[in-house]
Amino acid sequence: MNTSPVLAVRPLGFPWETADPFLFCAYHDDAYPKGNPDMGPAASLAGRDIGQDFSRKDGWSMYHGDKVPGFPAHPHRGFETVTIVRKGLIDHSDSLGASARFGGGDVQWVTAGRGIVHAEMFPLLAGEAENPLELFQIWLNLPARNKMAQPHFTMFWNEQVPRRVLADAAGRHTEVAVIAGRFGDTAPLAPPPDSWAAQADADVAIWTLRMEAGATFSLPPAALAGTQRTLYFFKGGSAMVGDRQVQGPAAVSVQADVEVAIAAGEDTCEFLLLQGRPIGEPVVNYGPFVMNTQQEIAQAMQDYRRTQFGGWKFGDSAPVHGRETPRFARYPDGREERPGVAPTPA
């Protein structure tokens, strides 16, 4: 009888494979060079398939951008994006009329629901230094009853994200950033109202773990039976997960209903944890649309052609905010936020 808490270990590709209720996770780690006056790379773009550049040539990609790296205006329906920016900045604009600049630990949570168009550009502000970018974008599915919910945009600023720092018996530390799902007595910020993560019986958790070299940590059991849990070991050479020696990078599926011991190896180890009870419904996707039936996909395409999901309110399909603009969020109702500053009313 196998009593190991580790169910499977798989290598990490791009994007990362996930389990229901998650659709996938894209991990972007780009060593962008110095920026030019247009906030693009001060480097030749020769040899890149501009508009479709996922090459990682010289350690970075342009993705769908042609001057500034990133993802110009594109539609979504039927799911959510949770974007955790660890380094660098994202300039967001959307068909709701919202816009933002965020990064350095900030989290953006967008419920696409019945339809949204947004742009996610990566401005390279530093002209005299490198512009590293590191982020996760997690696609979280919506149940059928919420596929056509009102789109929703919100920010969790780095200064607001709950974090716990725990010391083991040897005094080595593990930091847990709590984006979704309670960690012990540490409660997360509230997810959007129509999210699967907002359902009491969904047991969704999104945490990042940063373990000092040699640190030990006990991952507590999930709250509910039926939860699925995966640890994405994305930085560090090796770690013990339960009774398994794991070489990074790797995805480690673990039993959710038991405590799992983790021990970092000889260097700092970092993990992304994704967990949740499965939605358990059919998933039919076509590019940026994720629904339950092929007919709903066809309807999404028809609706987008007809309405553009509210239309694009910006003069450029790849807008970037001013070079001197600090982190901010402007919501569809006109309300504005800046981290550490009282919000401006609508």
Automatic annotation (TrEMBL):
It holds the Pfam family Pirin_C. InterPro entries: Pirin, Pirin_C_dom, Pirin_N_dom, RmlC-like_jellyroll, RmlC_Cupin_sf. Residues 207-310 form the Pirin C-terminal domain. Residues 315-346 are annotated as: Disordered. Coiled coil: none annotated. Residues 65-140 form the Pirin N-terminal domain. Residues 321-339 have a biased composition (Basic and acidic residues). Belongs to the pirin family. This is Pirin family protein. It comes from Ramlibacter pallidus.
